[in-house]
Amino acid sequence: MLRVILDQISEGQLDFVPLEQHYDTIIIGEKEDTRLYHMYSGKTEFAEALRRQFPEETQAIDKFMKLMKHVAHKIHIYAMLKIVPQWMSMFLIQTGLVYWISSIFKLAITSHTDILNQLTQNKDLHTVFSYLFYGVAPKDSSFVINALQLHHYKRGAWYPRGGASEIAFNIIPVIQKAGGAVLVRAPVKRILVNKDGSACGVAVKKGQEEVNVYAPVVISNAGIFNTFEKFLPPELQAKPEIQSRLSMVKSGMGSFLVFVGLDGTKEELGIKSTNFWMYKHNNLDEMMARYSSLSKEEVADNIPMMFITFPSAKDPTFNSRHPGKSCMTLLTMARYEWFEEWQDSQVKKRGDDYESYKMSIANVLIGWATEIFPQLKDKIEFVEAATPLSNQYYLGAPRGEMYGAEHDLERFRTDVVATMRSQTPIKNLYLSGQDVFCNGVAGALHGGLLCASAVLNCNLYIYLFLLKKQLKRERARKQA
């Protein structure tokens, strides 16, 4: 379904390159006590690879695969809480009928750790089933969101040919063809409302002036906190319905990234498209609790997790665009509070203390990465680190979060799911993106579809499902 949606919004111009079947490696432990586990895509190979690596846990793996498949097949029922009228969703929730409709509603409010504890006591396998970190400990996160993330890669991982910027590059002409316009360097200052309190446009900054752009419908992809706390006028922010929604969620954890430029092609450097997920030990619940409680001064010496990826190795056009070069990105989670003292400083001019602090963390991550890839140590030509303050400035993330509102158990309560929908208490104002559904590109895309369905008062998923079946029949005819 995801590919069908992307083809529709780009008119088929986005070209995705399949990555290697071995798409991820999970590294647990340190030094001599290091264990490596490998994730493989494929309808049967996904589970078979896990069974080979955990031969004594085949029963647990089979049960997990069954639960994961169930979640993937029933998620549309879960999403219906956001599609049907809110009064109907709340009736089903308050009467308890929702739990008779499907077990996915119970799984959504069950912590990932609780499910895993029912399956196995093998902590390494727990880590493998929880390795796609997004800032929430398994004990505090929904089983459903973790299962969906793992299932997302079961049939393979893909990367846009030409890099991630191709997504926007190929969607913009479709918007323009329909009579729309895409503005850059025109930040929204506030949402315009008319006398009856309905949204009627936005005020954007053009140079030193403000320009009012009027519209019958305003759709915000800026997240619930920006939309309600930054862009709405104070009198509307204070509305009980707005405050009630805001109280249901909190900001997610921030991220810290290091962008590394390398001298050499992927062949010369011996790097592949496989991602690496590093954990210093296998109790992710304890690890996240300890890491989140660190003081600013303790962070650099106590980083317990890291993600390593090589975008240049995934894109076959990279070498033609940047001959003889490669790149690596490192990522870990980071609390906004560790950088808060510099929040009022100007980007690129935050001072020596800030630069020194962020580079102390960056150098630890680079050192850890070059332990795994020692051949890269002398090939580093460029380093740039991005903190939660960078995310705040460049992405407009209020507290430097990557994935919008926190993806904890509270967010996946049925009443919160039914309430956190595209429609808002402000007439003609709608929400889109990650805060409507869930995190990542796929989550944001579904947030957009839910929003479009609400605006058009039409369930677009029905049309996409029929289109998918039609395309499948056409492919079958061509192959016959």
Plain-language structure description:
The chain has 480 residues and is α+β, with helices and mostly antiparallel strands. It is built from 22 helices and 14 strands. It has helices spanning 2-10, 45-53, 58-83, 86-94, 98-101, 104-108, 112-119, 123-128, 143-152, 165-177, 224-231, 234-237, 240-247, 266-269, 284-292, 311-314, 318-321, 352-372, 388-395, 414-419, 440-456, 460-479, and strands spanning 16-18, 22-28, 35-40, 158-160, 188-193, 199-206, 209-214, 218-220, 254-263, 275-279, 305-309, 325-334, 380-386, 429-431. It has a seven-stranded mixed sheet. It has a three-stranded antiparallel sheet with strand order 5-6-7. A hairpin with a 6-residue loop joins strand 2 and strand 3 (35-40). The longest helix has 26 residues, at 58-83. The mean pLDDT is 94.
* Biggest sheet descriptor: 7 strands, mixed
How many DSSP E strands? 14
Runs in which pLDDT lies below 50 for 5 or more consecutive residues are none
Radius of gyration: 23 Å
The overall average pLDDT, rounded, is 94
**Number of helices, where a helix is a run of at least 4 consecutive DSSP H or I residues:** 22
Give the termini distance in whole angstroms: 23 Å
Determine the oligomeric state from the structure: single chain
Please identify the structural class as seen in this structure.
alpha+beta
Helical amount: 40-55%
The proportion of strand residues reads: 15-25%
- Globular, elongated, flat, extended or rod-shaped: what is the shape? globular
Order of strands, main sheet, comes to 3-2-10-11-12-9-13
